[in-house]
Amino acid sequence: MPENYSPRELVPIFFENTASSYDRIVHHTTFGRDGFWKNQILDKVSGSSILDLACGTGILTRLIAQKFQKSDIVGVDITKNYLDIAKQNSKQFTNILFINQDAEKLEIDKKFDCIVSSYIPKYSDAKTLIQKCIKHLNPEGLIILHDFTYPKNKTLQIIWNQYFHLLQFLGYFIPRWKEAFMELPKLIRTSRWVEDYSSAMKEVGLEVKPEYHTFGCSCIITGKSG
């Protein structure tokens, strides 16, 4: 990670010019596991009002809208280019509303039964984001957060590191993704998002359950209010 950049400041660097190719890149670079992880999230979702934070191009948002056709779905993202793609790809859904906002400064005049987010935890401050979620969460609501994690197994760490070296090489042939491929592994290796968000959720009284997937390369945390 560039010395003077915080994880949050990497968001525009990674995503300003990558919206048009994001869906393909995330599918191929995760060997299709992104779809598996999102379906694992989907299995935990419930409620008549659902908020998808950092919804990006709306991959997860559309899965939720398709499964919960009578529910009100709101997708929020800070990057307008991504929201433009999300809106374009979601025209067939009448139960989705997309909003251009910063998740850490979220202000929506609505509360939700379920708040989900895939890939935001490593970029955001845990206490700030959880406080915003709690403000927008109905009683007995559910928060579901997902992101990459650095595997704890030493052999898997070697394979993981070699794979990202390959991605960094490929980045020279995909200029818009070069910066992300270069800096993302450093961010994932140094992130303590699972611990930070578990602690932040417990501080506000949520019952927390982490669930690791794909040999410890991904984690989904659920926080349930009483």
Give the arrangement of secondary structure elements.
Blueprint: H1 10-15, H2 22-29, H3 33-44, E1 49-53, H4 59-67, E2 72-77, H5 80-89, E3 96-100, E4 112-118, H6 126-135, E5 137-148, H7 154-170, H8 175-190, H9 193-203, E6 207-213, E7 218-224
Parallel strand pairs: 1-2, 1-4, 2-3, 4-5
Antiparallel strand pairs: 5-7, 6-7
Question: Can you describe what's shown?
Answer:
With 226 residues, this protein is of the alpha/beta class. The chain is built from nine helices and seven strands, in the order αααβαβαββαβαααββ. Strands 3-2-1-4-5-7-6 form a seven-stranded mixed sheet, with helices on both faces. α5 (80-89) links the parallel β2 (72-77) and β3. The protein is globular, with a radius of gyration of 17 Å.
Summed up, what is this model?
The protein is of the alpha/beta class and 226 residues long.
Task: Provide keyphrases for this structure.
226 residues, alpha/beta, 9 helices, 7 strands, 22% strand
Mean pLDDT: 96
Q: Give a short account of the largest sheet.
A: 7 strands, mixed
Report the uncertain regions: none
Helical segment count: 9
Please provide the count of β strands.
Answer: 7
- Sequence of strands across the biggest β-sheet: 3-2-1-4-5-7-6
User: What is the gyration radius calculated from CA atoms?
Assistant: 17 Å
In percent, how helical is the residue content? 40-55%
SSE order: HHHEHEHEEHEHHHEE
Q: What portion of the residues fall into strands of 2 or more residues?
A: 15-25%
Distance between the termini: 39 Å
* Global structural class: alpha/beta
Give the CA-based shape.
globular
